[in-house]
């Protein structure tokens, strides 16, 4: 496997990130936070359902 050294640059600049405004960043973080909160609420129900099926 050929691993590039730190001196080599990405030929197509795919590692360059586009500019993100503070508002866009806030919206992404808020959306992710809401998703994680909802996911956390569903975990006990999911575990209970899996335990029920296992029996």
Estimated helix fraction: 55-70%
Radius of gyration, CA atoms, in whole angstroms = 21 Å
The ordered H/E elements are H
Low-confidence stretches: none
Count of beta strands: 0
Distance between the termini: 47 Å
Share of β-strand residues: under 5%
Quick check: average pLDDT?
Answer: 80
Number of helices: 1
Shape: elongated
SS content category: mainly alpha
Short description:
The chain is an all-alpha fold. Helix content is 60%, strand content 0%.
Description:
This protein is mainly alpha-helical and 55 residues long. The chain has a domain at 18-55. Helix content is 60%, strand content 0%. It has one helix and no strands. The radius of gyration is 21 Å and the shape is elongated. The termini are far apart. The model has no long low-confidence stretch (mean pLDDT 80).
How would the blueprint of this fold be written?
Elements: H1 22-54
Structural features:
about 55 residues, mainly alpha, about 60% helix
């Amino acid at each position: 496997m050929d691993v590039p050294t730190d001196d080599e640059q990405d030929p197509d600049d795919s590692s360059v990130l586009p500019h993100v405004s503070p508002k866009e960043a806030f919206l992404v973080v808020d959306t992710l936070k809401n998703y994680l909160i909802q996911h956390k609420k569903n975990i006990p129900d999911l575990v209970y359902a899996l335990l029920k099926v296992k029996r």
